[in-house]
Amino acid sequence: MRIILKLEPNSLYDSIHELVRMAYPGCEIVCGEGEGDLMLELRLDIDDKAAVIAAQIHTAQGARTRRERCAIAADIGAGLFNWAKQQVRAFTYDLLCELTGENINRYGILTGMRPVKLAHRLFDQGLNPREIEKRLGSDYRLDPEKAHLLVEIAKANRPYLLGADEAGKWVSIYLGIPYCPSRCYYCSFPGAVLTNYETEIIPFLEALFREIRALSGYLKERGLKVQTVYLGGGTPTVLSTYHLERLFAELVACGYITAQTAEITVEAGRPDTLDLHKLRALKANGVNRICINPQSMNDNTLAVIGRNHDQKGVIKSLEWVREVGIEKINMDVIIGLPGEGLTENTNTAQQILRLEPDNITVHTLALKKGSLMAEKENGITPQERTRQVEAGVELFSDLLRGAGFIPYYLYRQKYMKASMENLGYARPGSFCLYNIQMIEERQTIIGLGGGAGSKFIDLKAGSLESFYNPKNPAAYCQTVEQLISRKVDKLRALN
Questions:
Q1: What's the pTM?
Q2: CA-based angle 407:270:361, to the nearest 5?
Q3: Which of 140, 196, 408, 441 has the most crowded Cβ, counting Cβ within 10 A?
């Protein structure tokens, strides 16, 4: 489907294009003149008293118009432009729902990754849960179930967020190890398959150790404390036991891991990278949370998506983790994998609950360009996939809540099936601190290593700046000195 947008001003494109794509998945959007299946003309005018939004829609079935006048509050001040954009998004959302005859997004006009942040902002303004849910529905068009979910999660993780003064004294550390033993069918991550340990891992670790040492000097100079450390990837446990121990020795020597560090997580997502010796080394080095991520507990699916393990390997890995005494276990699953429906989802949920992990993260598959699945998976209609995914999400929610788990963090992605979310569930008292700090963006995160993201946050000034290391390991190694310099500059700007 080809959609022509004629916008005045042109900057409205940034406000509405994602809503248009939700209404018409897979559409081609062209700005300006041209022939299309649908033309949307949208105009915004602002005077001293109101914002006036007017639209004309032209389709093969004819034309229709819509116009709305939104009064400007007397105290709007410098927030006028952002307020006007919100009105345009709400206007466009209502228009597209009317045009398609359905709710195009259960999150209303929210299309970003972190919708819970909005609930926190409203809590900060002194609103109570009922008032926040009402505001989310009226101003942002969320359906009641999603509004309630955001408030529930904000209430759950709010006690773990630090105030502006205290947050400025702490950071969390993310270390990216951008290698996996094989490429999963749904993965778009570039350069991730480990082919030669000596020629790839050794130079990568040398660059990572340089970055670790350089940033530690600045943290010590400013007296910043590390609350959590998270080893992600890729699959960090592709590293040998020897190199994992060397990595932790660097972290201790450079002051990243101290008695004040509350949580150390390792993504051991692939059971085929684990053994008892490696797990004992992780435990000895202070790791108190580990992720064993089967994605599915159906062997046929695991073979199709390129995982080099079966469900028996997952079970054995958990037995080893408990044998060595690592305190908390997370397990990830994905809803929307090829060939999976309610039967397969039910089997996965039941098997995982029998294993009694502390955290279960339920992902909704997001297909990205570059994944084999995005290139080849075309045997099911978007509507059928949406129904399957929504049913799977509801199934997991019912089973996990029934087993005593509560949702404590949430994030969303573009291309996500059914406009759903990724939800972290945990038993009470077993929340992952790093996940909360990273998703709610109330603490500076320093990312080290391949593909690592940093978030430089100043709560007092209300500023946030993101910075990403190259995902490609070779590019990371070549630019590590520049990366160090830029991160130090950004940290200095905060302090």
A1: 0.91
A2: 5
A3: 408
